């Protein structure tokens, strides 16, 4: 019996001309094939009458192609239509029109006389029931595998070019028979359940059985994820850090501020300061809404790091944000004698970092990943809007130094359970309040008929010295979309 890791290329029952389409779906081994779960199920145990009205939910019907036609709309546009009649020939079921727009090649796929299973959402055109671009499956006559594709709850697996859902269903069914399924799952103490769950998730006897199988396999995936998170935490904890004891720079920074940090900010600053002073490397996630003061917390960590004799770096996802951070940091850190440098793809601040004097704070974009100065080995790395960077990019930045502390920041709300699951290797800090004096944000909607009033509103605030931003979905006009474009509207 082949093992789960057996490549599909080694199996003589996998057609050679299907190996490339399978690989494009990421299916390279028996285990990949078995873990290619259905995206939905169709109940083909019996088919009722054809729909006679529009419906909010898709329907699954079976019938035969009674007629085909091509409808033209202009020179290049058209629709291929088929008339689908009930297989039973029931006089109570009117035919259904299925159509595909701008897909003339469909006439070589679906032809008169074929039997089909159709899945789609019915709508009305006059008194005629129409289904646009339905999913379909051709039912072949004298099919030895009819029990696999009909008269049961049938799985519909994600397919691709060169491989149909029908072919995938057959291959997965064969894989479940051929493969030793006990080697695929992680929960060994429940291994007796694993083969049954794998079979039931693909070919259930009922919708309830399919749901129970999905729950069992989801538990298995969650268990595997927790193992990975636990190992990552262990690996990080085993790495020694450089203790960073602060002097008087941080108190001087806080005293220079024209406002008082919130209680939440001070609490998080204390946690981060404790991390930096320990011999264990910091690996912390800072979460807070836009405007909650994450940048000040990061700045406090940077100042403590520099005061201890180490340089620090903060990476932002865009040049605009990097320049904004650079301007803010320069304004607040220059009075403390801390140099601030900018590194983006198109800009560098004047002068190279001078590491013989006071260690610098370096602000940049992805350009930091390609910093050529070998002396640049930051003791602290801050990653702003961490979800916009890939795992490898974050790892490469952390690799600029031998033992850096890492602080990643996000404004995306993360539920506690999700944070424990996906960021279990990180210590999580949350800013729960916003600084005082923040303006109220109002969101309103106005119809096109109120455009003159909107213009007057903008003019009134511009005269008061305020700013206005008008955002359009397109830059230049498009032949395919009717949305307004910024260039054309600017001229108006």
Report on this structure.
There is one protein chain. The protein has helices spanning 19-24, 30-34, 146-149, 165-178, 193-202, 207-237, 249-256, 263-277, 294-307, 319-333, 391-398, 416-422, 451-463, 486-491; strands spanning 40-43, 59-73, 77-86, 96-101, 115-120, 123-125, 128-132, 135-139, 153-156, 283-288, 312-315, 340-343, 361-364, 380-383, 405-410, 427-431. It is globular, with a radius of gyration of 31 Å. The N and C termini lie far apart (72 Å). It is built from 14 helices and 16 strands. α8 packs parallel to α9. Helix content is 32%, strand content 18%. The strands form 3 sheets. A 7-stranded mixed beta sheet has the order 6-7-4-3-2-5-8, with no helix packed on it. It has a 7-stranded parallel beta sheet with strand order 12-13-11-14-15-10-16, with helices on both faces. The chain has a two-stranded antiparallel sheet with strand order 1-9. With 492 residues, the chain is of the alpha/beta class.
What can be said about this structure in brief?
The chain is 32% helix and 18% strand. The protein is α/β, with parallel strands linked by helices.
Features of the shown structure:
seven-stranded parallel beta sheet, seven-stranded mixed beta sheet, single chain, globular, alpha/beta, 32% helix, 492 residues
Order of helices and strands: HHEEEEEEEEHEHHHHHEHEHEEEHEHEHH
Based on secondary structure, the structural category is alpha/beta
Indicate the low-confidence ranges by residue numbers.
none
Question: DSSP helix count?
Answer: 14
Strand order, largest beta sheet = 6-7-4-3-2-5-8
Rg, Cα atoms, Å: 31 Å
Quaternary structure: single chain
């Amino acid at each position: 019996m082949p093992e789960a890791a057996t490549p599909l290329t080694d199996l003589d029952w996998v057609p050679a001309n299907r190996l490339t389409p399978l690989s494009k779906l990421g299916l390279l081994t028996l285990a990949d094939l078995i873990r290619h779960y259905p995206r939905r199920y169709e109940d083909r145990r019996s088919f009722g009458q054809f729909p006679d009205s529009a419906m909010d939910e898709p329907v699954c019907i079976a019938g035969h192609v009674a007629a085909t036609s091509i409808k033209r709309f202009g020179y290049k546009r058209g629709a291929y239509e088929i008339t689908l009649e009930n297989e039973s020939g029931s006089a109570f079921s009117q035919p259904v029109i299925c159509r595909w727009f701008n897909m003339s090649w469909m006439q070589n796929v679906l032809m008169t006389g074929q039997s089909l299973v159709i899945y789609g959402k019915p709508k009305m055109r006059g008194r005629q029931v129409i289904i646009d671009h339905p999913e379909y499956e051709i039912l072949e006559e004298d099919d030895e595998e009819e029990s696999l594709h009909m008269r049961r709850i049938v799985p519909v697996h994600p397919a691709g070019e060169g491989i149909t859902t029908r072919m995938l269903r057959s291959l997965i069914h064969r894989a479940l028979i051929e493969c030793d399924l006990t080697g695929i799952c992680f929960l060994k103490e429940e291994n007796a359940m694993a083969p049954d769950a794998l079979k039931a998730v693909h070919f259930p006897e009922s919708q309830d059985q399919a749901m129970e199988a999905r729950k069992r396999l989801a538990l298995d995936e969650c268990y595997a994820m927790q193992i990975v998170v636990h190992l990552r935490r262990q690996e990080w904890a085993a790495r020694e850090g450089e203790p960073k004891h602060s002097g008087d720079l941080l108190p001087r920074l806080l005293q220079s501020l024209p406002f008082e940090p919130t209680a939440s900010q001070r609490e998080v600053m204390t946690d981060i300061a404790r991390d930096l002073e320990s011999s264990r490397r910091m690996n912390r996630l800072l979460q807070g809404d836009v405007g909650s003061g994450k940048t000040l917390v990061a700045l406090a960590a940077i100042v403590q790091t520099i005061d201890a004799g180490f340089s620090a770096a903060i990476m932002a996802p865009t040049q605009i944000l990097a320049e904004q951070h650079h301007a803010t940091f320069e304004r607040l850190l220059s009075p403390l004698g801390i140099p601030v440098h900018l590194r983006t793809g198109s800009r560098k601040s004047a002068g190279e970092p001078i590491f013989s004097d006071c260690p610098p704070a370096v602000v940049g974009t992805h350009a930091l990943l390609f910093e050529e100065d070998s002396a640049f080995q930051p003791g602290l790395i801050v990653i702003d809007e961490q979800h916009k960077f890939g795992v490898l990019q974050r790892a490469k930045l952390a690799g600029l130094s031998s033992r850096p502390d890492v602080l990643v920041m996000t404004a995306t709300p993360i539920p506690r359970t999700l944070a424990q699951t996906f960021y279990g290797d990180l210590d999580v800090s949350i800013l729960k309040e916003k600084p005082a004096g923040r303006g109220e944000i109002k969101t309103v909607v106005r119809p096109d008929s109120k455009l003159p009033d909107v213009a007057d509103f903008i003019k009134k605030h511009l005269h008061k010295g305020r700013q206005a931003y008008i955002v359009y979905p397109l830059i230049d006009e498009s032949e395919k979309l009717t949305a307004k474009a910024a260039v054309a509207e600017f001229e108006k």
